[in-house]
Specification:
The protein is an alpha+beta fold and 285 residues long. Helix content is 41%, strand content 16%. It has helices at 8-12, 57-61, 69-77, 80-103, 142-161, 198-213, 225-234, 257-284, and strands at 18-25, 29-36, 39-46, 111-115, 118-122, 164-165, 174-177, 180-183, 190-191. 34% of the residues are buried.
C-alpha cells in the first residue's frame, strides 16, 4: 500500500521497514500494521485536533501536567502556541500511560517507542496470528465472562494503584488475545488524584465492562466493584493484590447510588454513541 505521509519519516529513519495495511481508523487516530525487521507491529498515528470529534477534552485534561509555567499559561489562554502545546500533551498522554502501566503489570500492548508523533507498539493477535478481536466482538460463555470480568477488574485496580483512570474503557477498548484480555486506547486517561471527575469516570469504566459481561453472566450486574475500589483508594488502602468482594455499603454521606448508577448508564450510552461514530468513520475510510 501507499505509505501514509505520517509514517514516511519512520521508514526514512529505519524505525519500520514497510507499511503493510490499515488496521483501524477512528476520529482520534488511525492504526496501521507495519513491519520492523522480522517483527510485525502496529503504528498509531494521532489525528490533529481539528479532525477529532472528542467533545469533553476539558474534563479529561484536568490534572494533566505540562512542561512549564509558560506552557500552562498559554494553554489556559488558548493561544496558538498554547493549542500546539495542548496538542503535544494530548499525544504524549497515551505514550506515558502505556509505559507506566506496562511497568505496573497491567496487560497492555508492549510499546516500542514514540517517533515523530507516532506510537509504535505490539500488534495484539489471536491464537491464529490474526489481529485480535475486540471484546465487544466476541461471544462469551458465562464462565468465560466471569473470568474476563475478574481479570479486567484487577487491571482497573492496578491502574488505580498507579494513580490512573482509563476514562473511556469499554468492551471496544479491550482486545482478546490468546492469553486473555489486553487493555488498549489511553488518550483519555486521567489522574485519579488530580481530576475531579476521576471517580465518575472510574465508575463508568467498571460499569461499562460489567454491563457488557453481565449479559452473559447476569449476577455480575449486582456487583459494585467500582465503588468498592474507589472507597479503598480514597482511604489509602487499595493495593494491586487487594481482594475485592463486589459488595459496597455506603455511609450516610454517600450520594444515592441509584442516581449515580443512572448517571453512569447515561454516560455508557453516550460512550456507545461515540463508538458507533468511530466505527462509521472507519467504514467511511
Amino acid at each position: 500500500m501507499k505509505t501514509p505521509p505520517a509514517l514516511q519519516p519512520l521508514i526514512d529513519d529505519g524505525v519500520i521497514d514497510a507499511v503493510m495495511r490499515p488496521l483501524k481508523s477512528g476520529k482520534e487516530a488511525a492504526v496501521y500494521v507495519v513491519r520492523a525487521g522480522d517483527e510485525v507491529r502496529c503504528a498509531k498515528v494521532y489525528k490533529d485536533m481539528a479532525q477529532r470529534s472528542f467533545q469533553q477534552r476539558v474534563q479529561y485534561q484536568e490534572g494533566r501536567k505540562v512542561r512549564g509555567s509558560r506552557e500552562a499559561r498559554a494553554i489556559g489562554k488558548a493561544t496558538k502556541y498554547g493549542r500546539k502545546q495542548q496538542e503535544t500533551a494530548w499525544k504524549n498522554t497515551e505514550v506515558d500511560a502505556l509505559y507506566r502501566l506496562r511497568d505496573a503489570g497491567v496487560r497492555v500492548p508492549e510499546p516500542h517507542g514514540y517517533f515523530h508523533g507516532v506510537l509504535v507498539m505490539e500488534l495484539v493477535v489471536d491464537a491464529d496470528g490474526h489481529s485480535a478481536p475486540r471484546l465487544g466482538e466476541v461471544d462469551l460463555a458465562p464462565d468465560q465472562a466471569r473470568e474476563y470480568h475478574r481479570f479486567l477488574v484487577r487491571q482497573v485496580v492496578r491502574m488505580l494503584c498507579e494513580g490512573l483512570v482509563h476514562g473511556d474503557l469499554s468492551a471496544y477498548n479491550v482486545l482478546v488475545g490468546p492469553d486473555g484480555p489486553v487493555v488498549i486506547d489511553f488518550p483519555q486517561v486521567v489522574s485519579a488524584a488530580g481530576n475531579n471527575a476521576a471517580r465518575a469516570m472510574l465508575l463508568r469504566d467498571v460499569n461499562n465492562l460489567t454491563a457488557y459481561l453481565g449479559a452473559a453472566a447476569p449476577e455480575l450486574l449486582d456487583t459494585w466493584y467500582g465503588e468498592e475500589m474507589w472507597a479503598l483508594y480514597e482511604a489509602g488502602e487499595l493495593r494491586p493484590d487487594t481482594e475485592l468482594t463486589g459488595v459496597f455499603v455506603p455511609d450516610d454521606t454517600t450520594p444515592d447510588l441509584d442516581g449515580v448508577r443512572q448517571a453512569i448508564n447515561d454516560a455508557r450510552e453516550e460512550a456507545l454513541i461515540r463508538q458507533q461514530g468511530r466505527e462509521a468513520a472507519a467504514d467511511a475510510d
